[in-house]
Amino acid sequence: MVILHLEDSALDHQLVCRALQKTGLQFSIRRVETLIEFLRAASETRFDLILADYRLSGFTALDAWAALPKIGERPPFILLSGTIGEAAAVAAIHMGISDYVHKDDLDGLERVVLRSLEVHRARADKERADQELAASEKRLAEFAGYLQAAIERERAAIAREIHDDIGGSLAAVKLDLGWISRHGASTETQTHIDAATEMLLHAIGASQRIMMNLRPAILDQGLFAAVQWLAESFERRTGIKTVLRTNSISLSAPKPILLTAYRTAQEALTNVSKYANCTVVHIELSNAEAVLTLEVTDNGKGITALDMNKPKAFGLRGLQERAKTVGGWLDVSTIPAKGTSIILSIPLPAVGEDAPVDHFND
Ligand SMILES: Nc1ncnc2c1ncn2[C@@H]1O[C@H](COP(=O)(O)OP(=O)(O)O)[C@@H](O)[C@H]1O
Ligand SMILES: [Mg+2]
């Protein structure tokens, strides 16, 4: 252990060295007297511990402490003095100085040194762990954003293929069926043509619905129109009354934000149909005070804490991460037997300000 001792009395230095030797600690110690020497020593060498007399010629240990560079780790700093009152000692510890030992009580030095080193080590460990955790959370958030973008790209590509290949073929078959029907088909053939046409219309409808879920082309007509479409098809499919309200029909925002809001509405409605067991859903869309909010509220059974923490449920967690990728956040408020609200809020970039990176450029 390397110790720096700020002390202008050679005798006091000797006493401290003797007290340290009695502890059995392995150490080397260097004495400095002036503030300049002290700062130079501290910048040249990494000390494990600093011991400092309180009152020195022209400055105090507090000045020395305050002059230490704040960057990086500062070693534990213990005041050794006979001339400091309890109040000053307390103030020193408030400033971040590790501890205080009275010069008349050097027998207590070992205990104080060991405790300071231990506290210092624990604090450094915690700082390191906090940093690692923050870095890992950041990586996870970046990864979530990357995955979302990849999923959206993949969905858009599949939608395009359905459109170009399947959609194109179905349209051609429809034309041909029409041609056969017009060119003197027998009654029996016509019955088959009608049946085939009906199946065909069903297939066209299904492929359009699948494309719409994969890539909401209707978003091009604005978020309100897209959510309205979602709400209407949800009501038709489930029979749950769905009420949509907005303060702005022509609500506009960068594409990633619109897509995030749309996917949030989609997942919230899917959850409502799967779990809520409710009779009404209210969807509210607003852009008041430069914040886009989307609220999906049901009057169903509510979400329990247990449901929320299901290990394999990623719907709401995914939405939370997704909201973060566009600078927003997701709140879930729920009351048992009364219902659930999923609230997405995204601050909108001011006009002229950079929009979030368009991950979902499709
Ligand atoms: N609107 C809702 N009403 C009641 N329970 C819900 C509602 N939304 C979600 N839940 C509960 O919360 C759980 C987590 O939902 P979610 O994160 O979307 O995951 P998943 O849908 O994959 O289960 C669901 O399994 C369900 O038990
Ligand atoms: Mg879900």
Describe the overall structure.
The chain has helices at 10-23, 35-44, 61-67, 86-94, 109-182, 187-214, 223-238, 255-276, 305-308, 315-325; strands spanning 2-6, 28-32, 49-53, 55-56, 59-60, 77-81, 99-102, 241-246, 280-286, 291-298, 329-335, 339-347. The longest helix has 74 residues, at 109-182. 54% of the residues lie in helices and 18% in strands. It has two domains: 2-127, 3-Layer(aba) Sandwich (Rossmann fold), CATH 3.40.50; 219-362, Heat Shock Protein 90. The protein contains ten helices and twelve strands. Helix 5 (109-182) packs antiparallel against helix 6. It is an alpha/beta fold and 362 residues long. Bound molecules: adenosine-5'-diphosphate and magnesium ion (MG). Magnesium ion binds at residues 267, 270-271, 315. Adenosine-5'-diphosphate binds next to helix 8, helix 9 and helix 10.
Indicate the mean pLDDT: 90
Q: What's the overall geometry?
A: elongated
Estimated share of beta-strand residues: 15-25%
Q: Would you state the CATH class of the largest domain?
A: Alpha Beta
The radius of gyration is: 35 Å
CATH evolutionary superfamily of the largest domain: Histidine kinase-like ATPase, C-terminal domain
CATH topology of the largest domain: Heat Shock Protein 90
First CA to last CA: what distance? Answer: 61 Å
Which structural category do the helix and sheet elements fall into? alpha/beta
State the helix count.
10
As laid out across the biggest beta sheet, the strand order is 2-1-3-6-7
Q: Provide the succession of SSEs.
A: EHEHEEEHEHEHHHEHEEHHEE
Oligomer: single chain
Could you say what the CATH architecture of the largest domain is? 2-Layer Sandwich
